[in-house]
Amino acid sequence: MWQATEIGNVVAEREVVFERGETRKSVTLLVGQPVRAPGASEDDFWWCPIMVRGLSERVYSIGGVDSLQAILLALGFARSLLPELAESGGGRVYWEEGDLDCLSPSRGMIDAYATHSAEVLQVVRELTDALGGGDIEKVTRLRRRIEALESPHRHQT
Fold first, then answer.
1. Any residues with CB less than 8 A from the CB of 95 and at least 6 apart, and which?
2. Global confidence as pTM
3. SS (H, E, C) the chain
4. Domain boundaries, given as residue ranges, for the chain
5. For a tag on the chain, would you pick the N or C end, based on fewer CB atoms within 10 A?
6. CA angle 17, 21, 22 (to 5 degrees)
7. What is the Cα–Cα distance from 99 to 82, expressed in whole angstroms?
8. CA nearest 63: which of 71, 55, 51, 53?
9. What angle is formed at CA 113 by the lines to CA 117 and CA 27, rounded to 5 degrees?
């Protein structure tokens, strides 16, 4: 079965840190554009090549029924491949210290979402109480708070 053997056009990359003892170096996960075999039919797999430059020069080719699935499966594979290659090299890899793994959103981003969500829930609780008690002035203040929380996250159409 045909598989991609070269990284080809790089569509995404992430630089991570490989650490072994006191030594640190940059390692780059490269994700290639999904491709099909030359002369492939509509039913043939798409292949997404990935490579971890700095830990291995091997190109891994992950197949999917379409290009999106190939990319998603390749990222899932990379999530387990990065720490495996690092461990076999006697070290570990990380994107930002304390992150869940090298591909998930950063811990800081997750914390920011959690804080924002807690603020929104608090306003909803207060709004529910105010509506139940008929406090129109408080409802108006809470409505302004909701608008303030919402405004940075609105999408322009």
1. 14, 16, 17, 101, 102, 103, 106
2. 0.65
3. CCCCCCCCCEEEEEEEEEEECCEEEEEEEEEECCECCCCCCCCCCEEEEEEEECCCCCCEEEEECCHHHHHHHHHHHHHHHHHHHHHHCCCEEECCCCCCCCCCCCHHHHHHHHHHHHHHHHHHHHHHHHHHHCCHHHHHHHHHHHHHHHHHHCCCC
4. 10-94, 107-153
5. C
6. 75
7. 14
8. 71
9. 165
- Tens of pLDDT, residue by residue over 54-100, are 999 999 999 999 999 999 999 999 989 999 999 999 998 888 766 55
- Torsions phi, psi for 18 (to 5 deg): -100, 125
Burial (Cβ within 10 Å: 0-12, 13-18, ≥19) of residue 155: exposed
Task: Record the tokens describing residue 116, joined without a space.
Answer: 């924002």
